[in-house]
Design goal:
The complex is a heterodimer. Helices cover 31% and strands 32% of the residues of chain A. Chain A is α/β, with parallel strands linked by helices. Chain A has 3 domains: 89 residues, Translation factors (Elongation Factor Tu (Ef-tu), domain 3, Beta Barrel), CATH 2.40.30; 117 residues, Nucleotide-binding domain of ferredoxin-NADP reductase (FNR) module (Rossmann fold, 3-Layer(aba) Sandwich), CATH 3.40.50; 67 residues, no CATH class. In chain A, strands 12-11-10-9-13-14-17 form a 7-stranded mixed sheet, with helices on both faces. A 5-stranded antiparallel sheet of chain A has the order 5-6-2-1-7. The two termini of chain A are 29 Å apart. The model of chain A has no long low-confidence stretch (mean pLDDT 94). Chain B is 36% helix and 16% strand. In chain B, helix 6 crosses helix 10, helix 11 packs parallel to helix 20 and helix 15 crosses helix 16. The termini of chain B are far apart. Classes of the chains: A alpha/beta, B alpha/beta. The interface between A and B is large, with 41 and 39 residues.
């Protein structure tokens, strides 16, 4: 069992942070790797890329958005409650090296995944420009942490309630234009990664994205997480989750993420009705 | 016996197990056969000739003393029968259900030369089930503790066999499992209607009661490496991680929604209990027109699962002919009875989808048999211009598995063959890395439960020797 030692609500209660006791995983995990969590006996296995680890304390941190039954169930877990199963660390760690200027772009809960990578890139001696975005100011997460982890932080909101009025892609284009960027890391909703990759491609900047397809085992056994990279099928769980952003078939990934939308809706509605009763 | 010699009285025919009718069972996940009652089991046991040199034992990969356990059943000593089984087989309730007996023990049975062989599998199942329901739960004797520690990686049939053998020899055994539940393919792969999960749970619990430690959610190679296991004080490591890398067809359209590897389809249904959705949270696509590609046991399990999940039609598409079907004949028979349609000499060419990327159908090609290929089977060759369309909203790819590289690539000093399987000494299961043994599908490629158990048995003997005498 894996006990929750800290819980925070962000983004109007829609985004939840859990710090969880998992000493074996905390010792091993590197930025970019993920865990699979299962709340209880009847629960689903949900992959989440780790937002932080504390090897000394023996904890890992995940940040997730409540989007369906499983994440709504996660949200009911309070400090002191336990996840029945946490498996990891899974996937390949981010390749971190000193390359010069790195731009790290994050959207939504993708910022949580981007945070440890940004920090590692800076610690490796890079000049790190971070660009984070949200629909509005109230939905933005981890601004202070991202400021500390980067050399230069830019913030955007879709509605202009804070920072630059517009998408991260606008700011990214500006940065690519002005700076000599050696590497880009883009993590967020699939459309954001798709369009941000188009920008970095224009400037021929090597680009990493972190993909979040539907998974079951996370060890390369089921092939449910297959994604098309440069025309070839790869398993995100073992070949990724990070891939060359210019090679990803984003449209296929977006479609595959909708595989269970009807079942998910049914499951979530039943759960919400039960919760209210 | 007298009956046989004189030929006057009628011979006792092979006793069949009562089972659920095809129409009923194709709609539920309950086990198909009900098993023998005591009377029928004793009657079937009386058909055994108690051969002095029993061929059946030669046919058994783990050399169960078959005449001895059958004699106990004949006497009505069912606990004694189960104890006899346990001497050589830690998982009799499983083997009685999933072994291909017609190719092994029953295939060699002398009674079978002139008629139907003794139903050894059914009797094994009976003895194990009887002990589970009525037994005292008394454990077999365990040797004095040796103080040696063994790590078993993977809790499938070969890993459990190694654990069961070595715990009896007094070693301290820990089994590491990547999933949240133990059992490997017995839990994620073989469906409830063929092997109830309660039975797997009880067989594992039997090992735990004997003192085997079980660590679930441990991905060896990621959470902990093999070298770290040695650093932690383990004296020997057995790798029984299974094949575990699904093969796809590599044809256009394979990433459409509605195309699963058999591994994914069966894992969702069996391990995650998606057949009970939404009581269980894991969803599964329930097709109306389902096509399963391949004709092994896994394909039969998939096609039969699809019927139980409400498919209107469930088809097996296989590029070779009926003669080459690799599944157990009992599985093919059960599938046909339930209404699974077989399309032999048919090869998938491409999949089609709609604007939402959901599968709508596939194109196939008719084949004919040519000269024998490397496997000795006649090579299927396409017939020109024979393309045709098959409507389907769910396709399950069950064309075998390859070697999962997650563990092998994170372990230095482990020699692999060209296909990524671990190279071992065929007699002992020793790998190229000192103190490390391997067996089952990660050595042989996808095979059967009992062959994996046989490999586990060999390795356990060799590990025991090593722990007592050295490498």
């Amino acid at each position: 069992m894996f006990k929750i030692v800290r819980k925070e609500e962000m983004s109007e209660g829609n985004v939840i942070l859990n710090e969880i006791e998992a000493p074996l995983i905390a010792q091993k995990a590197k930025p970019g790797q993920f865990v699979i969590l299962k709340a209880n006996e009847t629960g689903e296995r949900i992959p989440l890329t780790m937002a932080d680890t504390d090897p000394e304390k023996g904890t890992i941190t995940v940040i997730y958005m409540v989007v369906g039954k499983s994440t709504a169930l996660f949200k009911t877990l309070q400090v002191g409650d336990e996840y029945q199963d946490v498996i990891g660390p899974l996937g390949k760690p981010t390749h971190v090296e000193k390359v010069g200027t790195v731009v790290c772009v994050g959207g939504g809960t993708g910022i949580a995944v981007l945070h440890p990578i940004t920090r590692a890139m800076k610690e490796a001696g890079n000049h790190v420009i971070a660009i984070i975005g949200a629909r509005s100011k109230d939905l933005l997460i981890l601004e202070d942490q991202m400021r500390a982890a980067s050399s230069d932080l830019r913030v955007c909101t879709d509605d202009g309630s804070y920072g630059h009025h517009g998408f991260v892609t606008d700011v990214l284009k500006e940065v690519c234009e002005k700076e000599d960027v050696a590497q880009a890391v883009l993590i967020g909703p699939v459309p954001m990664m798709k369009f941000a990759s188009l920008v970095t491609k224009e400037y021929n900047i090597p680009t990493l994205v972190s993909l979040n397809p539907i998974m079951v085992d996370g060890t390369g056994m089921c092939g449910g997480c297959r994604v098309t990279i440069g025309g070839k099928t790869k398993f995100a769980c073992v070949d990724g989750p990070e891939f060359d952003g210019h090679q990803v078939d984003y449209d296929e990934l977006m479609a595959r993420l909708q595989a269970y939308c009807e079942q998910e809706k049914q499951c979530y509605e039943e759960f919400c009705t039960l919760e209210q009763a | 016996m007298a009956e046989e010699k004189e030929g006057k009285k009628k011979k006792t025919p092979r006793q069949s197990m009562p089972e659920q009718g095809p129409a009923v069972r194709a709609k539920n996940f309950d086990e198909v056969p009900f098993g023998y009652d005591e009377e029928t089991a004793m009657l079937e046991a009386s058909r055994c000739l108690q051969c002095k040199k029993p061929s059946c034992v030669e046919g058994c990969p783990v050399s169960v003393d078959i005449p001895a356990f059958i004699a106990k059943i004949k006497e009505g000593d069912f606990t004694g029968a189960c104890r006899k089984l346990w001497e050589r087989n830690a998982l009799p309730a499983v083997c009685g259900r999933v072994c291909p007996q017609e190719l092994q023990c029953e295939g060699k049975c002398i009674v079978g030369k002139k008629g139907d062989p003794v139903a050894i599998g059914n009797l094994e199942r009976f003895a194990a089930d009887w002990e589970r329901h009525h037994g005292t739960g008394e454990l077999p004797p365990i040797e004095e503790p040796t103080g040696k520690r063994v790590a078993v990686v993977g809790s499938g049939p070969s890993g459990l066999t190694v654990a069961g053998d070595l715990i009896l020899k007094g070693h301290d055994v820990t089994v590491f499992e990547a999933f949240h539940l133990p059992g490997g393919v017995l839990i994620y792969g073989i469906p409830e209607f063929r092997l109830p999960k309660e039975i797997v749970g009880q067989e594992v619990n039997f090992l735990v009661r004997q003192g085997v430690n079980l660590e679930t959610n441990q991905v060896v190679g990621r959470t902990v490496t093999i070298d770290e296991l040695f650093e932690q004080g383990y004296d020997a490591v057995y790798l029984g991680v299974g094949a575990g890398l699904p093969r796809f067809l590599n044809i256009p359209g394979e990433n459409l929604i509605g195309i699963y590897s058999a591994n994914e389809y069966l894992t969702r249904s069996n391990l995650m209990k998606a057949y009970l959705f939404p009581k269980y949270d894991t969803p599964i696509i329930k097709g109306k027109n389902v096509v399963t590609l391949g004709a092994g046991n896994v394909a039969m399990d998939s096609a039969r699962t699809a019927l139980r999940l409400g498919a209107e039609s469930s088809k097996i598409v296989y590029r070779r002919s009926r003669q080459e079907v690799p599944a157990r004949s009992a599985e093919v028979h059960h599938a046909e009875e339930e209404g699974v349609e077989f399309h032999f000499l048919t090869n998938p060419v491409r999949f089609f989808g709609d604007e939402k990327n959901r599968l709508t159908g596939m194109e196939c090609l008719q084949m004919e048999l040519g000269e024998p290929d490397d496997s000795g089977r006649r090579r299927p060759l396409p017939i020109k211009g024979s393309e045709f369309k098959l409507e389907c909203d769910l396709a399950i790819i069950a064309v075998g598995a390859g070697a999962n590289p997650l563990l092998t690539q994170s372990t230095e000093g482990l020699k692999l063959n060209n296909w990524g399987y671990i190279i071992t000494d065929p007699k002992t299961g020793k790998t190229s890395k000192k103190g490390v043994w391997a067996g089952g599908d990660i050595v042989t490629g996808a095979a059967t439960v009992i062959l994996a158990m046989g490999a586990g048995r060999q390795a356990a003997d060799s590990i025991d020797d090593y722990l007592k005498w050295g490498w």
